Amino acid sequence: MSSSLRFGPWSGGVTSSSAQVVVAVRNDDTVAVAFSDRRSATGGLVDPRLAQSHGLATPGFVIETFELPGLLPNTPYHYDVLLGKGAAPVAQGRLKTFPREDTPASFRLVASGDAKTGSNHGVFDAIRAEDPLLFLHLGDLHYEDIHDDDGIEYIRAYQRVLNQSRQAALYRNVPIAYTWDDHDYSHNNAASDAIGRIVARQMYVACVPHYPIAEPGFDRAIYQAFTIGRVRFLLSDCRSERTRETMLGSAQKEWLKSELLRSRGVHPLVVWINTVPWIARKGEKSWDRWHEERAEITDFITKEGIRNLCMLSADAHMLAIDDGSHNHAPDGGGGFPVFQASPLDRSGSIKGGPYSHAPLTGNGQYGVMTVTDTGGDAVSVRWEGKRTGSGVLMKHEFVSPRS
C-alpha cells in the first residue's frame, strides 16, 4: 500500500447507473479516481473518466467520496486511485453495477457480521471467492468500543479494518452495503445516549460508501434503502435511536412501515437487514426487550397483508435459519423467514430461537443468498449457511411472496 493512502479504496452505494468509492489519504495529498468499463491487456484503463468527489479534511486525513455517475446496468467497472496528475495508480478496484431497477433479474450476494478489529481471517478470501454482486455487512465491522466523541478515533477504527490485506482485497473487489451494531457504533450495548453518537453518525457518512440516508438533516440515523432488480433492501439502524421505549425511534419505524407498504405489490421480495436477533427468548439482549414494539411491527405486517418480507441478521455469533414457523404472526400462523448469518471471526454465541434450522457456532461463517427471478409474480430464494473450509452447513429455499 502506498504510504500516502490512509485507508481504502472501498466501494458501495451501487445502483444500476452509479456507485461510490471512498478513499482516505494524507492531508497534504491530492487524490483522484478514474474509472472505465474496460482494462487493456497491460492493465490500464481504456477511455477512463474522472469521478467527481466531495470530502472531509481532518488532522492527518483527507477522506474523499467519489461519485461514479452515468454507468450502464449490470456491467463490470474498474477504477484506479491516482495521487497527483499523470501518476501511476496506487490502488485499483472493481465493481459491477446492479441490474435495472424493477425488472426481473437473478443475482447472488453474501451476508455476515462480527469481526475482530483488524481481522485478517481467511473468511474474507472465501467471501471474495464467492464472487457476489454485493457483500452485506450485518454489523460489528470492528470491536473498538469507542467511549469518546473524538472523530479521529472513529476514522482510525475504519483504517484498522481496511488496511488488513484480506479485508482490503475484499472491499476493493466487492461493493459493500453496511449498517452498524453496538461495538462499531460506540460500545457494548450502546444506544442513543452514547457519548459519541453524533460523531459516529458523521464519521459513518464521511468514511463509508453508502446509499442516501433516509433522514434529512445533519445529525441523523443511518437507515437507508436500495433496490436490485425487483428486490428491495432495507438497512436499519438499531442503535443510534434506541431508548428504553424503542429500538428504532418513531421516524425510523414510520419509514420502515411506509417502505413495506410501498413495496407491497411492487417488489416480490423485501429484505430487512436488522442487526439484532428478532426471534428472541425472554430477557435476552435482543428484540425481546422491546417486545411491545416488535408486536406492533408484527401486527402491522399481518394487518396489511405483507407477504413478501424476509430478514437477515447477525449480532448472535451463529448460523441459524427459521423458515417462519417459529416467527409467529398474531393470527397464529407462520411469519417471515429469518437468516442469522455470523460470525466472520468472533467466538460463537447463541441468542434467540427456537429456529427451524438449529444454531451452529463456529468461526469464519457467512450466508449466501441467491435470488432467482424469471418474471411473474414471485421470486425464488435460496439461503446457504457456510463455514470456511467446511462448505454448506445449512440451507433453506422459499418463494416470495408467501402464499
Structure described in brief:
This protein has 403 residues and is of the alpha+beta class. Helix content is 17%, strand content 31%.
Structural write-up:
- It is a single chain.
- By secondary structure, the chain is of the alpha+beta class.
- The chain is built from seven helices and 21 strands.
- It has helices spanning 123-129, 151-162, 165-173, 182-185, 197-207, 250-263, 291-303, and strands at residues 5-12, 19-25, 31-36, 49-50, 52-58, 61-68, 76-83, 89-96, 107-112, 135-137, 176-178, 224-228, 231-235, 269-273, 309-313, 319-322, 338-341, 357-360, 365-372, 379-387, 391-400.
- A seven-stranded mixed β-sheet has the order 12-13-14-15-17-16-18, with helices on one face. A six-stranded mixed β-sheet has the order 11-10-9-19-20-21, with no helix packed on it. It has a four-stranded antiparallel β-sheet with strand order 1-2-6-5.
- Helix 6 links the parallel strand 13 (231-235) and strand 14 (269-273).
- The termini are far apart.
| Number of H- or I-type helical stretches | 7
Strand content: 25-35%
The overall average pLDDT, rounded, is 95
* Class from secondary-structure proportions: alpha+beta
Radius of gyration: 20 Å
**Order of neighbouring strands in the sheet with most strands:** 12-13-14-15-17-16-18
> What letter string, H or E per element, gives the SSE order?
EEEEEEEEEHEHHEHHEEHEHEEEEEEE
- What's the β-strand tally? 21
Helix content: 10-25%
Shape: globular
**What is the terminal-to-terminal distance?**
52 Å
Q: Spans with pLDDT under 50 lasting ≥5 residues? A: none
Biggest sheet record: 7 strands, mixed
